[in-house]
Amino acid sequence: MASPSLVQVAVGMIHRPKDGAVLLASRPPGKVYAGWWEFSGGKLEPQETIGEALRRELQEELGIRVQEASPAWETEHRYDHAHVRLHFWWVRHWLGVPAPQEGQQLCWVRPSGPFPYPLLPATIPALAQLALRNHTRPVQTATGLLPP
Question: Can you tell me the distance from the alpha carbon of 83 to that of 123, in angstroms, rounded to the nearest whole number?
Answer without folding.
Answer: 15
